[in-house]
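Reviewers of the previous submission asked for a worked example of the structure-prediction workflow described in the proposal, so we include one complete record here. The input consisted solely of the amino acid sequence. No template or homolog information was supplied to the procedure at any stage.
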Amino acid sequence: MKTILHQAHTRGHANHGWLDSYHTFSFAGYHDPERVHFGALRVLNDDTVAAGMGFGTHPHDNMEIISIPTYGDLEHKDSMGNTQVIRQGDVQAMSAGTGIQHGEKNKNKDKEVKFFQIWVFPNKKNAEPRYDQQTFADKDKHNKLLTVVSPVGSNDGGVQIHQNAWFSLGKLDKGTSINYTLHDKANGVYAFVIEGDITINEIKLNRRDGLGITETGLLALKADSDTEILLMEVPV
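From that input alone, the workflow returned the following structure tokens.
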């Protein structure tokens, strides 16, 4: 087993006033040659957008983009004709493929919105752009790991992306132990602690820490406090 630990305080940070963003991997003005990606996982941004503000319309291509809100309401509009609002409990996936234009803004004028924006390299170039969004109940994540992202064409549940990748969310009570078995032993897992404290394969993690794990087929998790965890299994 090989591991790489990214503690929360070591992340890149940019505060633009309307946008306060922490970068686990190199992004925009933050560049660390040791932290460009974890296998197919390219971007993991922890974003807070001020009331009424947002990202103007901009292009993407050949990237799988996943958004996971944790607070507030994020409005999405794109060149495929989708206008949607994503909220806590929702997971959105967008395959940019041959190219799309989209914009995102805080729908509310009186409170901020917080969300994770995650980019994954696709395993298929120039695919037809697609949009997927689902809502997941907290009870389905309580003391278990719920699949919220899976490969296009699979029957594993969640929104689907063009990659041999699975994302799981769990909300674990303090003292809960649970195992995660990789779908593909050639993959690695990047674990990100949304809230709380957890031990994974005997490595202690705290809020907003990230841990990349390769060369193992099993993760053993134990919640050291009430914890919310995101596991991202991707090719490495």
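The chain has two domains: 12-135, 138-235. We consider this example representative of the routine output the project will generate in years two and three.
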